[in-house]
C-alpha cells in the first residue's frame, strides 16, 4: 500500500544555546521527517526565511527525501525555538515566529495538500482557520495541540476541524479522561493524550485505550511527541487498529529519544 501524508505549518531552527548547536525543527518538519523514515511519501508545506537558517531547513529536508516544492521562502527570519539542554531534557525558552507570522496557504497549496491521504498540522502552524477546507474535500486531518488543553483560541477552532487530535499531558487521571471525552464529542474520530514516560491514552467515542512506552536509554527528549505522532498517523493510513497506531507511535518515539535533536 502506497502511503502519502503531508505536513503543514511550522519549520524552524531549534537552537541549543547552552551547548552551542542547532537543528532544523518545528512540529510539521519533525513529523514529516519521521514519516518519511517510516516509508511514507511525505511533503512539507510551510514557510522559512531567506536567511541562513531557512537554507539549512530546506537543504536538510531535501536530503531526508521530503517534497519541499510548496515551501514558501519569505523575506525575513526563519522561526527560532531557543532551547536549553538540562539533564537529558529540553527546556524551551523564547520562540520567535519570524516569517511564520506572514505564512498563508495559497489555493494551489490547498489543492496540493488535498492530494494526500492525510494532512498533519499543529498549534504554531498558522493554518487552523484553513483545516475545514482540507477536511471538507475528504482528506483526513490530524492536529497536535501540545499542552494547550484549555482556553486557547487555536484549540477552539482546530478541535472541530480535525479527525485525529493529539494533546500532551502527564498521567492517566480523571481530568484527562473527562477532557478526552469532551473533546472527542466536538468532532474528532479519536483524541489522544501523550503522557511522557507514562505512555499514552486515547478515546474513540466508546472506549479508552492505553499504551505504554518502549523503555530505552534517554539521550534527548526533543521531538519525542512529534515522532509519536508520525508513527500514530502512519498507523492510521495503514488501517491499523487504534492500539496498533499507538504502539507504532511509542516505538517511533523510543527511537528518537536515543539521539540528540529531533531527528
Write structural notes for this entry.
The protein has 263 residues and is of the alpha/beta class. It has one domain (4-256): Ribokinase (UDP-N-acetylmuramoyl-L-alanine:D-glutamate ligase). The protein is built from eight helices and 13 strands. The protein has helices at 27-37, 52-64, 107-113, 131-135, 153-158, 174-184, 224-238, 242-256, and strands spanning 4-9, 12-16, 21-25, 41-49, 72-74, 79-86, 89-96, 118-122, 140-146, 164-168, 190-194, 200-203, 208-211. The strands form two sheets. A nine-stranded mixed sheet has the order 5-4-1-8-9-10-11-12-13, with helices on both faces. A four-stranded mixed sheet has the order 3-2-6-7. Helix 5 (153-158) links the parallel strand 9 (140-146) and strand 10 (164-168). It is globular and about 50 Å long. The mean pLDDT is 92.
Amino acid at each position: 500500500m502506497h502511503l502519502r501524508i503531508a505536513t503543514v505549518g511550522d519549520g524552524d531552527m531549534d537552537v541549543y544555546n547552552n551547548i552551542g548547536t542547532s537543528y532544523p525543527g518545528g512540529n510539521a518538519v519533525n513529523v514529516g521527517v519521521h514519516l518519511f523514515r517510516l516509508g511514507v511519501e511525505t511533503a512539507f508545506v510551510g514557510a522559512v526565511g531567506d536567511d541562513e537558517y531557512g537554507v539549512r531547513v530546506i537543504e536538510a529536508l531535501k536530503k531526508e527525501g521530503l517534497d519541499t516544492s510548496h515551501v514558501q521562502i519569505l523575506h525575513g527570519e526563519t522561526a527560532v525555538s531557543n532551547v536549553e539542554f538540562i539533564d537529558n531534557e529540553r527546556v524551551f525558552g523564547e520562540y520567535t515566529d519570524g516569517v511564520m507570522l506572514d505564512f498563508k496557504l495559497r489555493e494551489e497549496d490547498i489543492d496540493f495538500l488535498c492530494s494526500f491521504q492525510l494532512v498533519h498540522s499543529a498549534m504554531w502552524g498558522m493554518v487552523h482557520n484553513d483545516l475545514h477546507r482540507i477536511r471538507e474535500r475528504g482528506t483526513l486531518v490530524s492536529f497536535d495541540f501540545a499542552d494547550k488543553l484549555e482556553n486557547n483560541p487555536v484549540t477552539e477552532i482546530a478541535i472541530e476541524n480535525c479527525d485525529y487530535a493529539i494533546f500532551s499531558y502527564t498521567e492517566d487521571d480523571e481530568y484527562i479522561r473527562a477532557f478526552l471525552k469532551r473533546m472527542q464529542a466536538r468532532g474528532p474520530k479519536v483524541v489522544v493524550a501523550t503522557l511522557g514516560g507514562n505512555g499514552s491514552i486515547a478515546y474513540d467515542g466508546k472506549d479508552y485505550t492505553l499504551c505504554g512506552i518502549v523503555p530505552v536509554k534517554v539521550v534527548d527528549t526533543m521531538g519525542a511527541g512529534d515522532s509519536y505522532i508520525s508513527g500514530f498517523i502512519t498507523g492510521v493510513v495503514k488501517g491499523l487498529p487504534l492500539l496498533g497506531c499507538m504502539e507504532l507511535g511509542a516505538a517511533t518515539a523510543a527511537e528518537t529519544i536515543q539521539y540528540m535533536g529531533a531527528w
